[in-house]
Amino acid sequence: MTPVARLPVAFGGAPWELLADGAAFWTERRWLVIADAHFGKAAAFRALGVPVPQGTTTETLGRLDRLIDALEPAALVILGDFLHAREAHAPATLAALAAWRRRHAQLDIVLVEGNHDLSAGRPPVGLNIEVVTEPWRVDTLAFCHHPQFVPGAAALAGHLHPAIRLNGRADDSVRLPCFWLREGLAVLPAFGAFTGGARFDREPGDRVVALAEGRLYEIPPLRSAA
């Protein structure tokens, strides 16, 4: 596994780059795509009396700032779960999001509505985010929140927060967030800093690209049964 910071891939008949920050970049249209930011998740937990770290919204926005500055995208597409819950509308969280939006006022932003967006409510109007429902079809692609196969299109989705467990020596293992690609479907890792990851059922032919320490690592594919 040779680590890289960007990995060119073809998907839906279009050229893409997978990025080590957990985003994807549609190079023809210069669209930056992320999934599952879950802004305000820590605030929502604290509102319920659960002691969790502060600063996760700032960390996530900082990574997004760096990507926007480096790539100068024409648009940002969010594959669902922009806000985590109604408690995410905490003043500090909304102030941080408003300040971030002012820094990128000219950037078009589209949110594909996810399950957490339905419960959290739509983003404040001042953030100037267009909200669409899944599947949102553009050319040969379908932008979704829930992983699904869309007839006549290749789907990009989030929701699962995919992660893969890699085994080392003896009983050592590590679980890493990853991109999971199957024919007609690409699932992005969660972009948020406080989101966790979930296992998924990998099959022969699937392509898995893990994220670790600012690098991408393509995982050897499963072998088909003889």
Unreliable residue runs: none
* Class from secondary-structure proportions: alpha/beta
Mean pLDDT: 87
Tally of contiguous helical segments: 4
Order of helices and strands: EEEEHHEHEHEEEEEEEEE
**Roughly how much helix do the residues carry, as a percent range?**
10-25%
Main β-sheet, in a few words?
8 strands, mixed
Using the CA coordinates, give the radius of gyration. 17 Å
Strand content: 25-35%
Q: Report the strand count.
A: 15
Shape category: globular
Q: What oligomerization state is this entry in? A: single chain
Query: Whole-Å distance between the termini?
Result: 25 Å
Describe it for me?
Helices cover 19% and strands 31% of the residues. It has 226 residues and is α/β, with parallel strands linked by helices. Strand 5, helix 3 (91-103) and strand 6 form a beta-alpha-beta unit. Helix 2 packs parallel to helix 3. The longest helix is centred in the first third of the chain and has 16 residues, at 56-71. The model has no long low-confidence stretch (mean pLDDT 87).
What is the structure about, briefly put?
The protein is of the alpha/beta class and 226 residues long. Helices cover 19% and strands 31% of the residues.
What's the structural blueprint in terms of helices and strands?
Elements (H helix, E strand, L loop, with lengths): L5 E6 L2 E6 L4 E3 L4 E4 L6 H7 L8 H16 L3 E4 L12 H13 L4 E5 L2 H6 L9 E3 L3 E3 L2 E3 L10 E4 L5 E5 L5 E10 L2 E3 L19 E6 L2 E5 L7
Helix pairs in contact: 2-3
Based on the model shown, name its key terms:
7-stranded mixed beta sheet, 226 residues, alpha/beta, 15 strands, 31% strand, 4 helices, globular
